[in-house]
Amino acid sequence: MSFASRPPYSKGQLDRAGRSLTNLEPRSEAYKEALKVVNDWRTCHAYPLNTFKSTLRLKAGKYDGSFVAQRLKRLPTIVDKLRRFPDMNLAQMQDIGGIRAVVNNIMDVEALQREYKEKGRFTHELVKEKDYISDPKADGYRGVHLVFRYNNTLARNGLAHEYKGLAIELQIRTQLQHTWATAVETVGTLKGESFKTGRGGREWREFFALVSSAFALVEDRPVLGRHADMTSVDIYQAIKDLDLKLKVLESIRGLSAAAQVMHGDGYNGYYSIISLDTVNQRVRIYGFPKNQLDVATKEYAELEAHAGEGMDQVLVSAGDLKSLKVAYPNYFLDVRDFVEKVQVIIDVIS
Fold first, then answer.
1. Which of 131, 149, 236, 264 has the greatest number of C-beta atoms within 10 Å?
2. Each residue of 272-318: pLDDT tens digit?
């Protein structure tokens, strides 16, 4: 398999390039030079990310119903994060390479989390841990995040040393938490409002926060702090009231039926670029075999560079088309599972 070498950029060069993307005119030569630096830096995370995926698939495979997916962080998301956090530099961004395991329940999350924290043959350095299940984000997001510095001392080839120190973020969440998180992204994308970064209408954000608390009750975990004085019935009623006012379920119920999915014949997608056209509600899948990661990353950069309004791309590795839809339902505008679960909540007090 062909992996991009770690580029010989200094921390200062990386940080200047990242900052340039936040304030330069995209058609300028300086912007194009900065874009190359950022793309080179992002692409070199593919090697450690692939190593982590191999290990995670073995570990998560012990839990029934689990699945694993990996992705390189989208360029618009990198730029947006640098803008939202002016004190953050590109070189210190810890989630450019991201990998996720989704398991059935909280017990499986905790068991998998322990496996990654126990001392043993796993030699990568754990540098940051955030438990957003015990202490969820204010918007309702839940999951466990573990950030590692790549340090594969067991590798038999010399390549591993080249990537030492690169950060990889591992996320572990339950299926219910995954349903919530991907629904938030889907609706935010279609409304043009990034709910996951605290933007968008206040009442829409509160609707999703209330649903997060309702889902937490199902998993016997704490509700959000601002809902602590509410009974389960109070929370369910508040969800129903906001749904009636905002018509949330009505407005998103038909999304999956509207999305058209297109892909080439003989799809071979060890790596896949999912390209979502939110204006026309079309999804195009570009598949690449295992030995064409270099081709996939170049195509990914090209698609991002020429993306029109309403276009959203991501380079992932999750398996066949069925697995892609399970791992990334937001890119297929698929909110059916979320709608069904919220409808059950509403029906309880109808």
1. 236
2. 998 988 888 888 888 888 888 888 999 999 998 888 888 889 999 98
C-beta separation of 334 from 325 below 8 A: yes
Q: What is the CATH number of the domain that holds 96?
A: 3.30.460.10
DSSP string, 151-219: --TT-SSTHHHHTTT-EEEEEEEEHHHHHHHHHHHHHHHHHT--GGGT-S-HHHHHHHHHHHHHHHHHT
Strand pairing report for 260-263 and 167-174: unpaired
Structure tokens at 101: 């395991």
Q: Determine the length of the chain.
A: 350
Token pair belonging to 195: 């709910």
Q: In whole angstroms, give the CA distance from residue 157 to residue 146.
A: 26
DSSP string, 220-255: T-PPPGGGTTS-HHHHHHHHHHHHHHH-HHHHHTTH
d(C-alpha 66, C-alpha 102), whole Å: 5
Number of structural domains in the chain: 1
Query: With a threshold of 0.90, does the pTM exceed it?
Result: yes
Domain of residue 101: give its range. 11-174
Angle at which helix 29-43 crosses helix 293-305, to 10 degrees, equals 150
Q: How many CA atoms lie within 13 A of 93 on its CB side?
A: 30
pLDDT in tens, 176-222: 999 999 999 988 887 777 777 667 789 999 999 999 999 999 999 99
